[in-house]
């Protein structure tokens, strides 16, 4: 009996010391849980080597740190200054780490060498990994740097800045601007409340529902964009470009690839060395259009009720065909060099091709998928 009483007393003393020094409570299996009361709006940094880390929010005024590590090297949670805290698991090898922070906390630096990262329901986050997948849901502005790993984002209430060496990206519902620099990987973005700017060496890009403009620069990759609320600029060496429903001006340059433009409200300048250029939809009255294909066909599919345009085109070894009855001006041969007018002649059409046909086609085809933009 006396032995049991002494054991109970010792356990109570150890528990009290654990709470007093460092706030650690030993769970079954020797796995420590650390709690720390913090100021409102605190900033938290997390460092770890490998494994996985999950950061979520709680409605208390405490940071709660839980892991599968039973090693005691160093201090897990430390205060670095007023409202600033560090969770350091960097010397503990592969760890499964779970962190819960008070609502309104900023994750100002989560850095890992090789770990999967999941964060949810937080304020602004800054995430840095060498290799490992990243998923962020319902967060404020997000800054992400990774060398190798896929990224998934949803419901970001702010701007997104990403630097990635390799890995695919899927993002949706971004209220602020979106910027990405990537070496390789496919990118899919849906719902951007501001402008989007993407630069890659290799990878396809799909952007849908972007309130602002879009800029895309790549060495090798296809672009598909739908419902862009501002101007769009794309430069690619090898890749097809498919644009639908763009409210602003469009500029596309491709060395090798097809260009298809449908439902473009602004002026257009599109050029490809190897591939066809196709425009579908009504013209902006008084606008300017310049379409060039060195080795490929240039086609404009226009509504039957098009009010008019002036055509200037040249082709070294191609032909000109028009469903609209154009009137040739002096100096126009009607085939390789065209200077002609249809209707009111207010809209300017300029074509250039080396060995391809230029066609103006009457069409009832209308772009699918266009949605109103809130600008």
How large, in whole angstroms, is the Cα Rg?
A: 30 Å
Please tell me what the overall shape is: elongated
Our estimate of the beta-strand percent is over 45%
**Topology, number of strands:** 33
Main sheet overview:
33 strands, mixed
Calculate the terminal CA-CA distance, rounded to whole Å. 78 Å
Number of helices: 1
Structural class: mainly beta
Mean pLDDT: 88
List low-pLDDT spans.
1-30
Helix content: under 10%
Description:
With 375 residues, the protein is mainly β. The chain is 5% helix and 61% strand. It is built from 1 helix and 33 strands. It has one helix spanning 2-20, and strands at 24-26, 32-37, 43-58, 62-67, 77-81, 84-102, 106-120, 125-131, 134-139, 142-148, 151-156, 160-166, 169-174, 178-184, 187-192, 196-202, 205-210, 214-220, 223-228, 232-238, 241-246, 250-256, 259-264, 268-274, 277-280, 288-295, 298-302, 308-315, 320-322, 327-328, 337-343, 348-353, 358-362. It has a 33-stranded mixed beta sheet that branches. It is elongated. Mean pLDDT is 88; it is low at 1-30.
Short description:
With 375 residues, the chain is mainly beta. It is built from one helix and 33 strands.
List the helices and strands and how they pair.
Blueprint: H1 2-20, E1 24-26, E2 32-37, E3 43-58, E4 62-67, E5 77-81, E6 84-102, E7 106-120, E8 125-131, E9 134-139, E10 142-148, E11 151-156, E12 160-166, E13 169-174, E14 178-184, E15 187-192, E16 196-202, E17 205-210, E18 214-220, E19 223-228, E20 232-238, E21 241-246, E22 250-256, E23 259-264, E24 268-274, E25 277-280, E26 288-295, E27 298-302, E28 308-315, E29 320-322, E30 327-328, E31 337-343, E32 348-353, E33 358-362
Parallel strand pairs: 3-6, 3-7, 7-8, 7-9, 8-10, 9-11, 10-12, 11-13, 12-14, 13-15, 14-16, 15-17, 16-18, 17-19, 18-20, 19-21, 20-22, 21-23, 22-24, 23-25, 24-26, 25-27, 26-32, 27-33, 28-32, 29-33
Antiparallel strand pairs: 1-2, 2-4, 4-6, 5-6, 28-31, 30-31
């Amino acid at each position: 009996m006396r032995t049991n009483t002494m054991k109970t007393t010792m356990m109570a003393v150890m528990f009290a010391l654990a709470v007093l020094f460092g706030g650690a409570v030993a769970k079954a299996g020797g796995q420590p849980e650390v709690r720390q009361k913090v100021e409102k709006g605190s900033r938290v940094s997390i460092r770890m080597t490998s494994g996985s880390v999950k950061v979520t929010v709680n409605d208390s005024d405490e940071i709660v740190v839980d892991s599968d590590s039973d090693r005691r090297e160093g201090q897990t949670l430390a205060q670095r200054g007023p409202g600033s805290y560090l969770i350091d698991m960097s010397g503990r090898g592969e760890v499964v780490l779970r962190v819960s922070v008070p609502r309104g906390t900023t994750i100002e630096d989560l850095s890992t060498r090789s770990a999967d990262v999941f964060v949810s329901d937080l304020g602004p986050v800054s995430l840095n990994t060498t290799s490992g997948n990243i998923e962020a849901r319902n967060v404020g502005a997000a800054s992400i740097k990774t060398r190798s790993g896929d990224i998934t984002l949803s419901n970001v209430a702010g701007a997104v800045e990403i630097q990635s060496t390799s890995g695919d990206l899927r993002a949706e519902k971004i209220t602020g601007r979106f910027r990405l620099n990537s070496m390789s990987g496919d990118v899919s973005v849906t719902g951007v409340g501001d402008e989007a700017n993407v630069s890659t060496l290799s990878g396809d890009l799909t952007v849908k529902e972007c309130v602002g403009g879009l800029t895309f620069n790549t060495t090798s990759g296809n672009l598909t964009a739908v419902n862009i609320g501002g101007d769009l600029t794309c430069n690619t060496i090898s890749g097809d470009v498919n644009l639908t429903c763009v409210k602003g001006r469009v500029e596309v340059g491709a060395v090798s690839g097809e260009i298809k433009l449908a439902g473009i409200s602004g002026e257009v300048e599109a050029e490809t060395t190897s591939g066809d250029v196709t425009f579908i939809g009504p013209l902006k009255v008084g606008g300017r259009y310049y379409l060039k294909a060195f080795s490929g066909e240039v086609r404009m599919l226009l509504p039957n009720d098009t009010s008019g345009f002036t055509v200037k085109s040249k082709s070294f070894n191609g032909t000109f065909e028009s469903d609209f009855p154009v009137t040739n001006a002096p100096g126009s041969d009607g085939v390789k060099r065209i200077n002609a007018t249809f209707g009111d002649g207010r809209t300017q059409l300029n074509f250039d091709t080396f060995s391809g046909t230029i066609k103006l086609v009457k069409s009832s085809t209308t772009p699918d998928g266009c949605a109103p933009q809130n600008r």
